[in-house]
Design a protein that fits this description.
The complex is a heterodimer of chains A (446) and B (489).
Chain A: H1 9-21, H2 29-45, H3 61-65, E1 69-70, H4 79-85, E2 94-98, E3 101-102, E4 119-120, H5 121-126, H6 133-138, H7 144-152, E5 155-161, E6 171-177, E7 183-193, E8 198-207, E9 212-222, E10 227-235, E11 241-250, E12 254-261, E13 266-275, E14 281-290, E15 295-304, E16 310-319, E17 324-333, E18 341-350, E19 356-365, E20 371-379, H8 383-391, H9 396-413, H10 418-434
Parallel strand pairs in A: 1-7, 2-6, 5-7, 6-8, 7-9, 8-10, 9-11, 10-12, 11-13, 12-14, 13-15, 14-16, 15-17, 16-18, 17-19, 18-20
Antiparallel strand pairs in A: 2-3, 4-5
Helix pairs in contact in A: 2-7, 8-9, 9-10
Chain B: H1 2-14, H2 37-46, H3 51-66, H4 105-114, H5 118-125, H6 142-155, E1 158-161, H7 162-168, H8 170-176, H9 187-195, E2 198-204, E3 214-215, E4 229-235, E5 240-246, E6 257-258, E7 261-266, E8 271-278, E9 292-301, E10 307-314, E11 319-322, E12 325-328, E13 334-343, E14 348-351, E15 354-357, E16 363-373, E17 377-386, E18 394-404, E19 409-418, E20 424-433, H10 436-444, H11 449-460, H12 462-465, H13 470-483
Helix pairs in contact in B: 1-6, 2-3, 3-9, 7-8, 10-11, 11-13
The chains are: A alpha/beta (446), B alpha/beta (489).
Domain SUF system FeS cluster assembly SufBD N-terminal (chain A): 30-173
Protein name (chain A): Fe-S cluster assembly protein SufD
Pfam family, one (chain A): SUFBD_core
């Protein structure tokens, strides 16, 4: 992929922040070296422009205009705010990040099995970080945001689930942004599942109106017969730029990603999964709810490199006035990856005439004995259905809200945790309530 | 009396005293290899073009020099050396085979299968001394061509080579040329603007239903315009025309680079149906040789209730890069795209369409069938865009891919960009192979493997094939089978 740099000035602020922070960044010699190379590459790549194919629907404007430097001091935050950001009613171990800094004191580890000990990434790196070397090096040839993340990452979490351990309790991670204008969080989360292990990770992103930049990379390796469920609710503040990517490498295991995105001024969500052993399975269910003037963008890339793997992707987007929501989903079936079964479906609902929905469901297939299909639809709420509900006494707003909820219900229902499922539904309802009748304007009796 | 004069010209042209004189002073009809302003001036002078046309070409050339070759398509080829190409050349008579014995037997075998008469095979294969008639003139007769011309004239239809049209109807050409595909549109289109050799101009007057399917079959002087062809078709209010381009017979052509531009304009209530069978030389089994076909085709539905329909059967060329598109400006206008693209051996096709919905109640339908065999790659790339002001737009897209063998690739790259909620957009894509059951069923009934594949493939492509005019349909069906020869068993 060719990267087109808009201007060198858009990366200057990051460069300055890196130079300033460099002495304090955790890590041994090998990592310092790697960080230096990454920053050099980032500077030469620049931020991707609209002409870069994978970024054609994204809005990196706020990132270009702003100047974001990482937080270096821990932030005092009331417990109540953290609880409000977390999944209501979820009684589970919880890791807390505030403005990108891990808060051990606010986290709670009770309830974890004895042989599961999430570690702070910073601490792992300070003590040498040798066990992460391969994973970090893997992203050496990545794009600008991979490079930026490698150069700047200082916080995150490392979760190693040992062979055979099925973690009964979900593990929650809360990322809270609180009073942090012009700050950035370059986070790296590493989740490794040994053979036959299983884990359910529930992540909540929440923030105030700070001009903030979240830059998260999650790297996961899933061994044979292991099963990772990743439930992510992204509900950051209205001025935040959010870029999060999941890099998964699968053996004969399974990955399920359930994603709800409503937050950010401009938010980009990526999933890349590499199948390395026959029998791997990836399920992806993503919902984007875009409020007025917001840009939400999802990109998936499933690399079926070996035979007999399955994937199933479902995406639903709902767009209010002036919103842009995009879904680019690609399935690559490599030579000899026979018996691949890859499904994809994307549906978008436009609530206003000024919204823009983009979809690019892409197939690249080099094997013949495969089942690959995708479907994509774009449309608005059915006037018949609205009429039906309104004839029964619902206001136009209520009727629309009900239909929107129904539209995304199928994907909410799939969330395999009751508390998280309810949190998805509540977040969606909250999103709907924040829209006014203007955003949902009915076409006048046409 | 006019008709008589016309007939005389026809006969003159057909019998070889072509006005640019192939046979007389050949050398002077060659522009030197390479591209510069002088070559463009030479081409323009050869064609007796008005000054504005030359200026237009030169302007395009200046743009082209600042442009870069696009690299986003899923194709790869060695860099094209634009200074190693003849941009204007009369046919190389001396280099042609002396008789059919010298022609590639593979090619002859294909002609035979298509049932092409011997005399015609000579023309197609470019045998020296073969009658110099329009390459596509299947009905080898002066009278047929002339009769058609008369009939068209009676209807008021203008059907000329674009060079002729530039001389006879300069204002009409000037008004529309470049109005659908702007000069700066893309690298290959801009190149075409600078150097186009010839092509077709069609104007259907108000309310006229063109009395026959128009085709290069019947147009004189159609030969050797293949390299940088320029086609402009205007259907005035309430008119209808069906245009056939290309030929099912495989065409030998020494010009490796083809960069044609086709512009269609449909005014109120007009309909244009444009059908293509493209079967240029695809290169040999090892991917050596073959045509690079970089084509820009676009139709503008300017008028209310106008309709443009593209149907294409693409089996030839080493590289096909082509996206026949519709700009649906007029309210209630309709765009259609039906495509079968077959790739075998080392062919690469990156083809699809763009439907740009601007007017209200505009509708579009895309049916694309990609068939890949051998070690080929076949990509559907399509854009459906609904502008904010376009109310009640409908689009339906279906892209199916069929893979024959495990060394080929089938790719689907659709872009769906919608800015109006009243739009109803549906897109479906599937990828599959011919099942063992299907093969067994056919072969149990006595078909051999190749026939069975041809039958299944024709079934797979039926939705598109039925859109082809009768003239093409039968041969195109045979062609599908032939193109896939050697891909099974």
């Amino acid at each position: 992929m060719t990267q087109h740099s808009e201007s060198p000035s858009d990366v200057a602020a990051f460069h300055a922040a890196y130079d300033h922070l460099k002495p304090a960044l955790p890590g041994a010699g090998w990592l310092r070296e790697l960080r230096h190379v990454a920053m050099t590459r980032f500077l030469s790549l620049g931020l991707p422009g609209r002409r870069a194919e994978q970024w054609r629907y994204a809005d990196l404007g706020p990132l270009r205009k702003g100047s974001f430097s990482p937080v270096t001091l821990a932030q005092e935050t009331e417990q109540a705010r953290i609880d409000a950001a977390a999944v209501p009613g979820l009684d589970a171990p919880r890791l807390v990040f505030i403005n990108g800094r891990f808060q051990r004191a606010l986290s709670r580890m009770e309830g974890l099995p004895a042989d599961l000990a999430p570690q702070s990434l910073r601490e792992v790196l300070i003590t040498g970080g040798g066990s992460l070397r391969d994973l970090i090096t893997d992203l050496r040839d990545g794009d600008a945001f991979d490079q930026l993340n490698t150069a700047m990452m200082s916080e995150g979490v490392v979760i190693d689930v040992p062979k055979g351990l099925k973690v009964e309790t979900p593990v929650e991670i809360v990322y809270l942004v609180d009073d942090a204008d012009d700050r950035a969080a370059h986070l790296r989360v590493v989740v490794r599942l040994g053979e036959g292990a299983s884990l359910k990770l529930i992540e909540s992103f929440k923030g105030d109106d700070s001009r903030f930049f979240t830059n998260l990379i999650t790297q996961t390796t899933i061994a044979d017969d292991a099963h990772l469920t990743l439930i992510r609710r992204q509900n950051e503040g209205a001025e935040t730029v959010h870029i999060s990517r999941i890099y998964a490498t699968l053996g004969r295991g399974a990955l399920a990603v359930h994603h709800l995105a409503t937050g950010g001024q401009s938010a980009r969500h990526e999933l890349r999964a590499d199948f390395t052993t026959e029998g791997g399975d990836v399920r992806y269910q993503g919902i984007q709810l875009a409020r007025p003037h917001q840009t939400l963008d999802t990109l998936t890339f499933l690399d079926h490199a070996v035979p007999n793997c399955t994937s199933d992707q479902a995406y639903r987007g709902v767009l209010a006035a002036q919103a842009v929501a995009s879904f680019q989903g690609k399935v690559l079936v490599r030579r000899d990856a026979q018996k691949t079964d890859a499904k994809q479906k994307s549906d978008s609902l436009l609530l206003d005439r000024s919204a823009t929905s983009n979809a690019k469901p892409e197939l690249e297939i080099y094997a013949d004995d495969v089942q690959c299909a995708h479907g994509s639809t774009v449309g608005e709420l059915s006037t018949d259905q609205l009429f039906y509900l309104m004839a029964r006494g619902l206001s136009p707003l209520e009727a629309k809200a009900m239909l929107v909820e129904a539209f995304i219900a199928a994907l909410c229902d799939g969330v395999p945790d009751e508390a998280a499922r309810n949190a998805f539904i509540e977040t969606a309802r909250g999103w709907l309530q924040n829209l006014d009748i203007h955003d949902l304007a009915l076409k006048e009796a046409s | 009396m006019v008709a008589t004069a016309e007939t005389k010209t026809q006969i003159d042209e057909l019998t070889g005293t072509y006005k640019h004189g192939w046979s007389s002073d050949i050398e002077s009809d060659f522009a030197p290899k390479g591209l510069n302003e002088e070559v463009i001036r030479f081409i323009s002078a050869k064609k007796d073009e008005p000054q504005w046309m030359l200026d237009w070409r030169l302007k395009a050339y200046a743009m082209w020099q600042k442009m870069e070759e696009p690299d986003w398509a899923m194709i790869s080829h060695p860099p094209i050396d634009y200074q190693d190409i003849y941009f204007y050349a009369a046919p190389k008579q001396k280099d042609g085979p002396k008789s059919l014995d010298e022609v590639d037997p593979e090619l002859l075998r294909t002609y035979e299968k298509l049932g092409i008469p011997l005399a015609e095979q000579e023309v197609l294969a470019g045998v020296e001394g073969a009658p110099r008639i329009a390459v596509d003139a299947v009905f080898d007769s002066v009278s047929v061509a002339t009769t058609f011309r008369k009939e068209l004239e009676k209807a008021g239809v203008i059907f000329l080579s674009i060079s002729e049209a530039l001389r006879t109807y300069p204002e009409l050409v000037r008004k529309y040329l470049g109005s659908v595909v702007p000069q700066r549109d893309n690298y290959f289109a801009t190149l075409n603007c600078a150097v186009f050799s010839d092509g077709t101009f069609v104007y259907i007057p108000k309310g006229v239903r063109c009395p026959m399917e128009l085709s290069t079959y019947f147009r004189i002087n159609a030969e050797n315009t293949g390299q940088f062809e320029r086609t402009l078709i205007i259907a005035d209010e309430g008119s209808y025309v069906s245009y056939l381009e290309g030929c099912t017979a495989p065409m030998r052509d020494e010009n490796q680079l083809h960069a044609a531009v086709v512009e269609l304009v449909a005014l109120d209530d007009a309909e244009i149906k444009y059908s293509t069978v493209q079967n240029w030389y695809p290169g040999d089994k090892n991917g050596k040789g073959g045509i690079y076909n970089f084509v820009t085709k676009r139709g503008a539905c300017r008028g209310k209730r106008s309709k443009i329909s593209w149907t294409q059967v693409e089996t030839g060329s080493a590289i096909t890069w082509k996206y026949p598109s519709c700009i649906l400006e007029g309210d209630h206008s309709v765009g259609e795209f039906y495509s079968v693209a077959v790739t075998n051996n080392h062919q690469q096709a990156d083809t699809g369409t763009k439907m740009i919905h601007i007017g209200n109640h505009t509708r579009s339908k895309i049916i694309s069938k990609g068939i890949s065999a051998g070690q080929s790659n076949n990509t559907y790339r399509g854009l459906v865009r609904v502008m904010g002001g376009a109310e009640d737009v409908r689009n339906f897209t279906q892209c199916d891919s069929l893979l024959l063998g495990d060394r080929c690739g089938a790719h689907t790259v659709p872009y769906i960009e919608v800015k109006n909620p009243t739009a109803q957009i549906e897109h479906e894509a599937t990828t599959s192979k011919i099942s063992d059951d299907q093969m067994f069923y056919c072969m149990a009934r006595g078909l051999d493997a190749e026939e069975a594949v041809a039958m299944v493939v024709n079934g797979f492509a039926k939705d598109v094939m039925k859109e082809l005019p009768m003239e093409f349909a039968v041969e195109a069906q045979k062609l599908l089978g032939i193109s896939l020869e050697g891909s099974v068993g």
